[in-house]
Amino acid sequence: LQPSKLIYNAKKGIVYVLGATGGTTGGITAMNAGDFNFAVYSGSPVTSGNGVPGEAVLNLNHDKLYVLNTTQNTLDVYGVNLPVPHLIQAVNFGGVDLRGIAFDPNRNLLYITSAAGNKLHVFDASATVPFPIPPGISLSTLGIQQGGVLAFNAVKDLLYIADVGARTVVALNTIDAPVDLPVVATRPGGGER
User: Nearest 5°: phi and psi at 73?
Assistant: First the structure.
């Protein structure tokens, strides 16, 4: 496994290592974070839904790991109630060229950006398998040229979107999500002032 992403599960004391296993395949390895030798759990790595795992986010409310499968253009949903993640379902929601993912633990909403159509997809993550809240939001209508990676601030209810086209970071207020996502700030992404 060639590591490309690490996710720490503080609830379970496990580090998930995501990466490519070769070509268009990938996997997830679960390691005991309390062990200084990072013992790998039996059954690791698990294959990642016939594709290479991209960005990922953990939902500790429901013991789920959401992984963007960049090969298949799916959202791969893993259960993490046991030490080794198990694939529950690969969700094909029509997103293409998936870029970013973030989870709002306050509202159990999942956000995904896709470059094709410059869209922000919002999902209800309270169910076993998240389902999209149609339609995807056009980021162009928010002044975002090309949506990229995401981050979520659960304290201030802000969704941060990297605008790759404008080289900025845009903050959206998510208080009324998914109905209304107003832009509250735009800042240069490379440290310019």
Answer: 55, 50
CA atoms within 13 A on the CB side of 166: 17
**Would you give the distance in Å from CA 150 to the centre of its chain?**
8
Query: Rounded CA gap, 134 and 178, in Å?
Result: 10
**Alpha-carbon torsion angle 94, 140, 184, 124, nearest 10:** -10
For residue range 129-188, what is the model confidence (pLDDT) as tens digits? 888 887 788 999 989 999 999 999 999 999 999 999 899 999 999 988 777 787 887 888
Report the pLDDT value the prediction gives residue 50, as an integer from 0 to 100.
65
Work out the burial of residue 96: count CB atoms within 10 Å of its CB; fewer than 13 is exposed, 13-18 middle, 19 or more buried: exposed
Cβ-defined contacts of 138-143 (< 8 Å, 24+)? 139/113, 142/170, 142/172, 142/181, 142/183, 143/170, 143/183, 143/186
Joined tokens for residue 7: 């996710």
Comparing CA positions, the residue from 153, 107, 172, 111 lying closest to residue 136 is: 111
Question: How many CB atoms are located within 10 Å of the residue 160 CB?
Answer: 17
